[in-house]
């Protein structure tokens, strides 16, 4: 397996063999023309005495000795590597798999995924198999549950969706499991996840999550990068069709009622974005919006001015992963085309491609969602422009109304042309 393409081993092994032969020629030249000529002559005479030239030519003995020395050198290098790997705690049998995986992932496409919630973490868990160049830009305006309590107590950005994304991209299965562990008892701990508390600790210790990003990626062994859309706390504000204004996304579902959300904004509006986020957008091969809640996961990340400006100017195609269903209290009765129009209105750029699921969930699943007022999103009633941008594929997990990570990742990698990589 050490000879597998892409490991970068064969080139150095070839160089070692070539240098070994050149070294052998150099030794021969020095011995035959220098002060050791007498010893070389005695050696040849001694070999000639042992084996008659009629039985085996003298040069074959030299070749055999040279090949034996080369084999011994290769063996010594192999054993040295084995000792070094064991000393660093890496099983020699796993080293080749690890090297191949990292080399393969390093050549993967540069994908920027924007959103939040379980939809984004679901997408990242599928992409991590194909590329190590994923950058997640996560909305951090949530003000409910564990995130809301930590925001209120520490005046920090909401950590919940960040935790989910870190868990999805972590190369440590143990750490990924611990990040999502939710405390069910304990004064002040109940309801919090370990990941949220870890991010809160790093934010407090470093004076903000922006200063702790490098530590987070190193400690959690992230395959890719995860960044908040902004490093300052912000409140999501919605304007409804009946003229009301709602503050705080956690109350949208209960307070929207029969009205519809017309638009959303962040308060304060002039929020900064990390330089790493803006650089990732400029260098992206694809920019993926979603999957996730339209007004509380995808659009909030697009409301950070610098992020919206960079996406509008980016040469990479923008792909919108359409939600599977509407969300009660947020996108009631909105068609797929109206979802796309809302993104275009807030971003200032229409998606180049819309990825739409074609599979139908089981009837009992659909009926359960219908009881809560949710219905399937599809191209029914869509105009010619949207149909021309749509890529329709089966993307469901069997028996569920949830995107399948593997199918979604494969669809994204083929949904739009990639920019040439130098």
TrEMBL record:
Keyword Transmembrane in annotation: yes
Pfam family for this entry, one: CofD
Keyword Cytoplasm: yes
NCBIfam families the UniProt entry points to: CofD_related (TIGR01826)
Annotated family: Belongs to the gluconeogenesis factor family.
Biological role stated in the UniProt entry: Required for morphogenesis under gluconeogenic growth conditions.
Descriptive protein name: Putative gluconeogenesis factor
Native organism: Deinococcus arboris
Gene: yvcK
